[in-house]
Amino acid sequence: MDVLLSENEEMIRNLAREFLEGECPTSLVRDMEKDELGYSQDMWKKVASELGWTALSLPEQYGGLGEPLQFLGLIFEEVGRHMAPVPLLSTMVAALTIARDGSEATKNDILPQVASGDLILTYSFQETDPRLIESAVKTTATADGSDYVLNGKKLFVDNFNQADKLIVTANTGKGLTLFLVDTGAAGISTEKEVPTAKDKQFAVIFDNVKVSADNVIGEIDKGWTTAEYMLDLGAVFYASQMCGAARKDFEMALDYSKNRVAFGRPIGAFQSVAHMLADAVMYIDGGELLTREAIWKMDQGQTYQVEVSQAKAFCNDKLQHVTVYSQMIHGGMGFMMEFDIHLWYRRVASWSMRMGSTFEHRARVAEGILDTPGNVELGMIQALPA
């Protein structure tokens, strides 16, 4: 993996930045926090059908452009930098999961519509047990002829109110199975949740929801590998967004520290401020390198699970420090709702809690380097057996 971006990667990033700087002011971000739908339909049309972001990394035979996930990761860095209110992450996580493990019929039906921007997707996994492990899934799928009947409750489902279809993980009694379900299917109800980022998340209740066996993604009863891939995509793309948001937050703090004068000199000349800025840039650079390495390994078909967890655990922990430092450097106004800096702080804080906690990802890294790993249990790591 090249540490520096290639010419094509620079172009992808710069085009995304130029577009979002013109189309996504913080006033739009604030408006979408209050909007019932929660995203700009005009912006979605532009990023999907005009810029081709939804087609970027989908296979060419299904209407995509066939570009590497590294390009999409750079897009997500810019989405995070500008806090773009579009359902891109949820749509692409679900679409890429279908692209890898969906049936040919499902791929031919779904992926061209995603590539064109005509279909919005999301995914669901988490329940009352927050761990991202197979045994945490209590939603059931009961065979009923050629159909399955879903019962259960999923939490923290991104953009459900915007999505046309969602991937549901359910337990058949013999193992995990993933289903593609219409969001308007009979028996589905929702409860609105209020995340720190003030974007759209829902609890989704399934009450005898029928879904055809034709809508299975991956193998029946053997869906953990597919689910794990889906979760890893979500984790690494959230890490990308966190890197972009933290980078922008740092740049604002750096600029302020150069121009705000106290006691006759810029506040950046004071050691406490200078050291916070130094830590911040090290954390951001480290997060970017870990995240880009994980995505590169996914592109190369190499084993990537430990790298994904390294990236997410590091970004969860360190990038929250960056946003706190930025608020501290800005002084009292850094904590005022009228000042924009809290917008980045709230998103990094919220994204750090999605797709796996720091504890959980650390345990997964440990599993990759230890012969006898521990297990995450309610935020704690169990003692290793003697």
List keywords for this structure.
386 residues, Butyryl-Coa Dehydrogenase, subunit A, domain 1, Butyryl-CoA Dehydrogenase, subunit A, domain 2, 4-stranded mixed sheet, 4-stranded antiparallel sheet, 11 helices, disordered C terminus
Query: How many β-strand stretches?
Result: 12
Mean pLDDT value: 93
Radius of gyration: 21 Å
Distance between the termini: 39 Å
The gist of it:
By secondary structure, this protein is of the alpha+beta class. It has helices at 7-23, 26-34, 41-50, 69-82, 88-101, 104-115, 224-259, 271-300, 305-329, 341-351, 358-369, and strands at residues 121-124, 140-144, 147-158, 165-171, 176-182, 188-193, 201-212, 216-217, 261-262, 265-266, 376-377, 380-381.
Your description of this structure?
The protein is an alpha+beta fold. Helices cover 49% and strands 16% of the residues. It is built from 11 helices and 12 strands. The protein has helices at 7-23, 26-34, 41-50, 69-82, 88-101, 104-115, 224-259, 271-300, 305-329, 341-351, 358-369, and strands at 121-124, 140-144, 147-158, 165-171, 176-182, 188-193, 201-212, 216-217, 261-262, 265-266, 376-377, 380-381. The strands form 4 sheets. Strands 1-4-5-8 form a 4-stranded mixed sheet, covered by helices on one side. The chain has a 4-stranded antiparallel sheet with strand order 2-3-7-6, with no helix packed on it. The chain has a two-stranded antiparallel ribbon with strand order 9-10. It is globular. 47% of the residues are buried.
